[in-house]
Amino acid sequence: MTIPSRRSSAIALGLLVATLAAGAGFANSGTATQCGIAKSTQGGMLALEGTILSPVAVSGEYRFAIQSSGNGGSSNISQGGYFTANANQATPLGKVLINAGSNYSVVFDVTAGGKKIDCDQDIASLR
């Protein structure tokens, strides 16, 4: 089946507009996708949780890696994989518990919509 050129041009334009609209959440500050690391305590341990919040439904891949050291020893933890997050809903993407007094470093990044986002910053909460 052959699609007339006018119709195929209209379809292509519609797909382009839809693609731009879907990616708009990553480009516009104020409505951009937010991500970061939430800290809390659980049973005397420090909980680190990678979280993402987007104004539009989004899917992609994430990497959440922690190196920690302290009196109890050291650890290297790496989590990651594919995810899907609903619009306007904070979605956890990885979580670890380490000794509360440990020194640690975190690498948390998200790739979605063809863009890589560095999410290493601490967050109190996402809105």
Automatic annotation (TrEMBL):
Pfam families reported in the protein's UniProt record: CsgH (PF21112)
Superkingdom of the organism of origin: Bacteria
Keywords linked to the UniProt accession: Signal
Domain CsgH-like per the UniProt entry, residue ranges: 34-119
Tagged with keyword Isomerase: no
InterPro entries xref list: CsgH-like, CsgH_dom, Curli_assembly_CsgC/AgfC
Keyword Signal in annotation: yes
Signal sequence interval, chain numbering: 1-24
Annotated NCBIfam families: chap_CsgH_alph (NF041112)
Protein name per the record: CsgH-like domain-containing protein
Organism: Devosia oryziradicis
Lineage: Bacteria, Pseudomonadati, Pseudomonadota, Alphaproteobacteria, Hyphomicrobiales
